[in-house]
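Long-time lurker. I teach an intro course on protein structure, and each term I like to show students one example going from raw sequence to a predicted 3D structure in token notation. This year I'd like something fresh instead of my usual example. Would anyone be willing to generate the tokens for the chain below so I can use it in lecture? Attribution to the forum is fine with me.
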Amino acid sequence: MHKLLERQLKKLGPLPDLPGLKNFIAAVDAAYQQADKDLALIERSLELASQELTERNRELREDIEQRKQLEVELAQAEKLRAVGQLASGIAHELNTPIQYVNDNVVFLKNGFDALSALMLGSIDQVPDKRQRQRLEFVRDNIPSAFEAALDGCHRVSEIVSAMKVFAHPDGADFAHADINLGVSSTLAVARNAIKYLAEVHLDLGELPEVECRIGDLNQVFLNLLINAAHAVGAKNGEGGPLGNIWVSTRHDGGRVLVEVRDDGCGIAEKHQSRIFEPFFTTKEVGTGTGQGLAISRSIIVEKHGGLLTFTTTPGQGTTFRVELPVLRSERRRTLATSADPRAGRPGSGLYAALRPVKC
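-- Reply from a regular --
Happy to contribute to a lecture. Here you go:
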């Protein structure tokens, strides 16, 4: 008998033995039992509906975040494509006049060398001492001026070549590319942003060509280099001593590895789990959008099937490690971060006997 009905009957005391009373009580008891079942069914239905609504709400939030991320990536890609086309055009326009200047400096240098041989005895015969000293000064210093001018032309030519490589627009399809050339050209483009903060040590190993979109990878390398420079600057302060950035590449089986290590401020423990989140940044307002590492992770993991991991020690520095499959058929489906976003082997042994590269 239902407990509620039983309590009600106890309040009434002894029941008279009336015809049909037992049947009536049994019918009321059955109604109570059915009401309990209906209530349990309603509660279960509400619980399932609540769970379904919660799950749908979560999916909608994820869809909204993914759409926002996609919009940011598309806007960034369009911006970079426009900047790349502009930079490529500027590099092309600069190449001709720089080559013209270089050729003329070489001509003038060769001509001066020929004239110097003729003037060697003539200068000594000039009677005026002051005039003779001036001619000797010009004769002795013009060669070094020619060398400096040629060196300047060579450096400008290197920057122009790096800009042409860095800004070359990618096609829609993947193509085989030289990762070392991408790293070198990106470093040349980022030189001005790095040279006042850190000295770069470059160790480029022998690599096979990688099937990739090199323009996207250059963007990743640029983000990692700029972040490393900012980390060094944050540790040493404005006007402080130069820090160090180590960049290395090597081939490991079917993968190409690129590591960027710095001796900067490192990443605080409370920030390490969020480092790849879109819009998350530890930089001051106006100096960072929080999109660099998020976009880099998307490029490496989702577009190229690789891995982007990091190891860090607060106050000592950070190492970012890019792993890329050489061929698209060997693309990894593993996410760049597991439960621990720093997952990945540290890059030991890659930085021995590095040669410094002045930025």
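Some talking points for your students: Residues 103 and 150 are 9 Å apart (CA to CA). The chain has two domains: 1-10+19-169, 174-359.
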